[in-house]
Amino acid sequence: MSSPASTELEVITLDWLGKMIGLPPQFLSCSPGYGGGVLQGSASEATLLCLLVARERYVQRLHEKNPSLTEQELRATKAKLVAYASDQSNSSVEKAGILGSVPMRLIPADEKFQMSGSNLRAAIEADLKEGLVPCIVISTLGTTPTCANDPLREIAAVCSEFGIWHHVDAAYSGAALICPEYRYICEGIELADSFNFNPHKWMLVNFDCSALWVKDSRELVAAMSVDRAYLVHTQQDAGMPDYRNWQIPLGRRFRALKLWFVLRIYGVKKLQEYIRAQCKLATDFEMLLRGDDRFEIFTPAHMGLVTFRLKGPNENTNKLMANLQKSKKIYVVGAEVGGKAMIRFAICSRFTTFSDVEFAWNEMVNQTDKVFLTLPENATNGHF
């Protein structure tokens, strides 16, 4: 009621964006049903929101089946709820569990750094035997350490079997879905309950702008609505969303405007060209790595990310990372997966060109030379 233009533009731009990335119609406001999109501040907020909605949905359904349950008994049930995500998921996923008072069970990733359906099922069945209640599963497309993608269809089958909310966190990788050749990563998305990615991360939109779509917005409204006399207005049943009930805060910013500008200025074709160029630069850097036998590729270029390490013990890679941070000529982030230290090289800026990649590579070689000059001879032999 206080800003109908903001609401209308948000509905329209999120339908545009949903179509651009190939989301199924059931997630869009322009399709029959209760689907639709809403802009949040970050993927952290979107994950927490969906966890809270999944929690309240379970309690509400339980109360409908057992109307005689007291408030105390319902609170006791909440204490048994459990959430699930890959141990490769972003830290914000685990934090959502803390804030929502729902323990987050981190499922060990497989050899592809994915959360497999079989590992998820085993964890759920073990919790059920302990009297716990599975509440939500959070899949990741584009994990932070290696840009791995959880198998959505496989996970959705498990969620469907046990009646669990399935949320997909594609904070980084979601932008790549603008390019049809990358849509294979979201096979099975039509079976999820909610999907989120950050246009402010890889789609040229200024922070903060995180797009969340749900199949059934009534679930959000049921969990997030708190009506007071001063919030009642004449347009509540006019068919447009009242976005205060689709988020945690009451007030909200006009985030749709900056998204609208990017979509109108660049258009689908230019955004596709931008994403593809960034992916090509990551592949170029991988080729440079392969030309120096002191390096080993930890994960090949996927989208805009390459991960690699120095051959030998973790000490070698950690020293290289320390050298790069000390020189302050390029910025890279380290990680450790499966006990192996590695370095993440991510193409992030729209201004990055191959000359920048070459500059980074030359600095990498220079600092690697210094690492091996200071290492004892046996520290360079063999792999970790």
TrEMBL record:
Keyword Transcription on entry: no
Classification via Pfam families: Pyridoxal_deC (PF00282)
Cofactor(s) this protein requires: pyridoxal 5'-phosphate
Name used for this protein in its record: Aromatic-L-amino-acid decarboxylase
Modified residues (N6-(pyridoxal phosphate)lysine): K201
Keywords: Lyase, Pyridoxal phosphate
Family membership noted in the UniProt record: Belongs to the group II decarboxylase family.
GO biological process, one term: catecholamine metabolic process
GO cellular component: cytoplasm
